[in-house]
Amino acid sequence: MAHIHLLSSAPGERPSRPFPFDELNRMREAAAHDRFGVHTVVDTPEEADLILFVENCHTVQHYQEVRTHPVYQHHADRCLLHSRHDQPLPLLPGVYASLRHAEYHPERTRTGGYLKAFAHSHVQYDPTSTPSRYLYSFIGKTSTHPIRKTIMALKDDEAFLFDTDPFWPYGNLPASQRKALQTQYRTVSHESTFVLCPRGIGTSSMRLFETLRMGRVPVIIADDWVPPVGPDWTACSVRVAEADVPHLPDLLRERRPDAPEMAAAARHTWCNWFARDVTFHRTVEWCEQVASASHGWSWDTLPHLLSPTHLRSVWRYAGPRRSLA
């Protein structure tokens, strides 16, 4: 049993950083509904065995803010990070939603899910729905990774493929149009035997966890994705190499007989690993697995800081402050 202190290093909401505490509030919600009852949230870092910063900002920013936060300064040996960022740089031990193989170090990092997946009210499980209309479907933006354009080029009468790029930014749409798109996404998923979950900006995808939640079989198309430890991914999903996407229709027709059993396993995986009432427990378990890691710089990770993505972040955020630590 562990005592956990949950917090965020965000200084507050401002125009350049809206909703800074969304992820923290979701984790607190998960803790409040935790059905395992093994781990406990405590009010102060002094009471805690583990201190978890739950952040909703880009990689360099949360690293800078956590490292300079008074709680981290006084209790660094017990601090870990939970980050939903699509392109993480795991400079601190913790749980990251979208890790690449090159950035995954099992002694200090774990891959997790997306807290938003249990918060999306439009994504629901319907045990009465039957996937009888489409062999597979994909609804999403195609501009986030080239593999999505390859998917859209597939010609298959049994597929439903829909590019949502014209509807972004999503938040600017009228409420009625947003609701219609959400309804379409849920209905098509329920009518699909397989739901394609290609990588986007990051190696992971919110769609993967939403598909598990709806009890459909996700098709993971992300060569560099590191799956969360624990679930039996072979039982509940199909993994297809990015190079094999042109052959995807034939591959999925071969797997169609396995789909009912896999769909049940997908729903089981959601309920036992990523649903609201298990997320806190599973996150703490992953944190305990890496809690003894060194809290200094991870030298294996530092070369990735030189990637264009992270250098832009350094220039935009950390550069003016002259220091990362």
Tell me what you see in this structure.
The chain has 325 residues and is an alpha/beta fold. It is 36% helix and 15% strand. The chain folds into two domains: 3-117 and 278-321, no CATH class; 120-274, Rossmann fold (3-Layer(aba) Sandwich). It is built from twelve helices and eleven strands. The strands form two sheets. A six-stranded parallel β-sheet has the order 2-1-3-4-5-6. It has a five-stranded parallel β-sheet with strand order 8-7-9-10-11, sandwiched between helices. Helix 5 (146-152) links the parallel strand 7 and strand 8. Helix 2 crosses helix 12 (308-318). The longest helix has 16 residues, at 175-190. The chain is globular and about 60 Å long. Residues 320-325 have low confidence and may be disordered.
Summarize the structure.
The protein is built from 12 helices and 11 strands. It has 325 residues and is of the alpha/beta class. It is globular.
Q: What order do the SSEs take from the amino end to the carboxyl end, as H and E?
A: EHEEHHEEEHEHEHEHEHEHHHH
How does the helix and strand content classify structurally? alpha/beta
Distance between the termini: 32 Å
| Strand portion | 15-25%
Output the number of helix runs.
12
Overall morphology? globular
Query: In the residues, how many domains can be counted?
Result: 2
Helix content: 25-40%
Largest sheet: 6 strands, parallel
Unreliable parts: 320-325
Gyration radius (Cα, Å) is 20 Å
What spatial order of strands do you see in the largest sheet? 2-1-3-4-5-6
Q: How many β-strand stretches?
A: 11
- Estimate the mean pLDDT confidence: 90
